[in-house]
Amino acid sequence: MSDRSLRGKVAVAGVGETVYYRHSQAPEPEFVLCLKAILAACADAGIDPRDIDGFASFSDDRNDPMSLSAALGIHELRFSNMQWGGGGGGVAGALANASAAIAGGLADCVVVYRALAQGQFGRFGQGVQMPGVPREFGLSMPYGQMAPAQFFAPMVNRFLHDHGIGQEALRAIAMTSYHHAQANPRAVMYGKPLTEEKYDASRWIAEPFHLFDCCQENDGAAAIILVSAERARDMRQKPAFVLGAAMGSAHRAPNSPASSFALPDLGTSQFKSVAKRLYAMARLSPGDVDVVQCYENFTGGVLMSLVEHGFFKPEEAMDFLKLENLIAPSGKLPLNTSGGNLAECYMHGLGLQIEAVRQIRGQSTSQVPDAHVSLAVGGPMSPPVSTIVYGSEATL
Amino acid sequence: MSNYILGQNAASPEGDGGHHGGANAGYYLPEGLPAPLAHPVELYGPYWEGTRAEKLVVQRNPATGVYQWPPQWITHDTQSFDIEWAEVAPRGIIHSWTRIWHPVHPALKDAGPYILVVVELPHAGNIRMLGNLLGDPAQNIVIGADVEAVFEHHDNAEPPFTLVQWRTVPNP
């Protein structure tokens, strides 16, 4: 067996977030949000910001490492990295890249960050307004397929069709996020509970997605600081050790959402092979996982990701995906315990990663008792997809 | 505008492609959506020329007969740059679908709902295409149903183009 593994070599030492805003409502520039999240993570970790020596991000984040390191007065920049891919597919990949840099000796203290100010830079959920579009965009946009919900809906519809899964399964995923957000004062949807009736009555966006199946769009920033396992043990916070991470895509997955119709296995979150590698590196199986954060671009992506991570079979989805099974502290698989992208904040999944760390620390607003293995899935259907699992000291 | 779908990889649209003449000439969706540009021409020219002539023309590996779509610079099965274009029968089966209600483009403001279908072509190696499903937007959509292409000519656009739409046909 290969000893090339991240297992137990790297840990999260600090997490930080700005206030999370509704889209376009941040009072500050995106770069300032980014700096504030990084500083919050440094404060959480108890480190001098100038001791950061690496930066890693994803989804073409606009805040480049040189701007950040100059602004922060970084002593010595040793590592910078961008994970390919749009949306939140790469969030766990960015954490994996940072972890690999530390394990491989390229850097000692790497911050993974994501900042979004859509008022400053434009919204994700709006269609492209150009008179003409090249390449694969010409195969989809003239037909009115131009936004993420519209690209991903046919994938989910195929999966629902193949396995006889009904709308109630998607509804339970949405209800779970909103349920947990009611305990989380950071959540944008704090104080805004969702009922089954409200879900059912909500408008369609693109079938099978109702309004509440779709992530929010938000402004804000989040950051996670990674250091070696040895160093993390001497720091302020209880370490959340990286047990495993993996990234990849389905076979012949098209490069762009605009050509996603050509994906040979259409009804997939693209985690089938990726999850296998995750568990192999972590030396765990799905039954060992205490709590899951799963990126909700759309609830259907969560459904497929949970199946492909081995938590239940597709034909068990209607029984498994019930609110009582998914909520902390008592559910058999507590899911999205901060409110996730649907109800806490859509920070391209970095908020979900922070929540996975909080579960290991015992700091969640919907804490799972004795959470030792905490899994966090990056954006499904948005390749390269990525996933990561954290553990407490007891799991090493 | 900034949008991660197009992002920084999108080529700047070449040609303005934007002068749609005349009133709505019975198109499925209102005019004003992005028009397809045959760019890069090596990859997309034969397809869009084909639709003007009411033909479906796609890529095929001449050595193996393996079809591929959307087009690529290289055959995925043999990594050859020798690729041929082949006409295929303009029919298929519905592989998946969505019915879109929420408009994300000004031209679609009062156009919904409308139906998108992913169509598989079993006679061409199960390649897939996308289009709108013509007819009642409230219709029941059946995965596995047979469909045939309908060529929607936008003759007044500059340059003119033809979209491939789909309609259901009775099972034989």
List keywords for this structure.
heterodimer, A: 396 residues, alpha+beta, Peroxisomal Thiolase, Chain A, domain 1, ten-stranded mixed beta sheet, two-stranded antiparallel ribbon, 14 helices, 33% helix, globular, B: 172 residues, mainly beta, five-stranded antiparallel beta sheet, three-stranded antiparallel beta sheet, 7% helix
- List segments of chain B where confidence is low: pLDDT < 50 over at least 5 consecutive residues: 7-23
**Any idea what the radius of gyration of chain B is?**
17 Å
Sheet/helix structural class of chain B: mainly beta
Largest sheet of chain A: 10 strands, mixed
Estimated radius of gyration of chain A: 19 Å
Q: Specify the biggest β-sheet of chain B.
A: 5 strands, antiparallel
Give a topology summary:
The complex is a heterodimer of chains A (396) and B (172).
Chain A: E1 10-17, E2 21-22, H1 30-45, E3 54-58, H2 65-72, E4 79-83, H3 91-103, E5 109-116, H4 118-121, E6 132-133, H5 148-163, H6 167-181, H7 196-201, E7 204-206, E8 209-210, E9 218-228, H8 229-233, E10 240-248, H9 272-282, E11 291-294, H10 299-308, H11 317-320, H12 323-326, H13 340-344, H14 350-361, E12 373-377, E13 385-391
Parallel strand pairs in A: 3-4, 3-5, 11-12
Antiparallel strand pairs in A: 1-9, 1-10, 2-9, 5-9, 7-8, 10-13, 12-13
Helix pairs in contact in A: 6-10
Chain B: E1 35-36, H1 41-52, E2 56-60, E3 67-68, E4 84-88, E5 91-100, E6 114-121, E7 127-132, E8 146-154, E9 161-168
Antiparallel strand pairs in B: 2-3, 2-4, 5-6, 5-8, 6-7, 8-9
Summarize the structure.
The complex is a heterodimer of chains A (396) and B (172). Chain A has 396 residues and is α+β, with helices and mostly antiparallel strands. Chain A has helices at residues 30-45, 65-72, 91-103, 118-121, 148-163, 167-181, 196-201, 229-233, 272-282, 299-308, 317-320, 323-326, 340-344, 350-361, and strands at residues 10-17, 21-22, 54-58, 79-83, 109-116, 132-133, 204-206, 209-210, 218-228, 240-248, 291-294, 373-377, 385-391.
